[in-house]
Amino acid sequence: MVGLAGRTKEADAEEVAAIPVRRAADLAKDFLMLTKPVVVALLLVTTFAGMVVGAAAWPSFNLAFWTLLAARMAAGGSGAINQYIDRFDDTKMQRTVRRPIPSGRMTPGEGLAFGVILASDLLFNGSVCQFPGCSAQSGGNHLLCVVI
Length: 148
Hints:
Elements (H helix, E strand, L loop, with lengths): L8 H9 L6 H11 L2 H19 L5 H25 L1 H4 L17 H23 L1 H16 L1
Helix pairs in contact: 2-4, 3-4, 4-6, 4-7, 6-7
């Protein structure tokens, strides 16, 4: 039987069997690297600066915390999905060949699932718990970041 990606179950099983057993610390580091932490840190600085300038005052701790957490999740999820999309190109460039997916430390499915989970959690928690309007905007921005 052929799956959605045009692959057989046997091919998927071979790919999974080829992955060595990983330590939890190494796996956590690989998941973190999928989120492109340096890019996200720059985004958080500009997000906080925008909050201060836009309100012409320091935001409350609660507002700043949840906004920065949502921005972190949106950017991290976008970065993970983007690395899934770019996985074939990343194997050809010296700068990106050591990323978790092209280096073989993580399957493409793991990277995609991680990115989708981050994005889904952002949209759910943002719309239910915090700011529905911002959650919808973050969803649109998330899609743009993945495509670009």
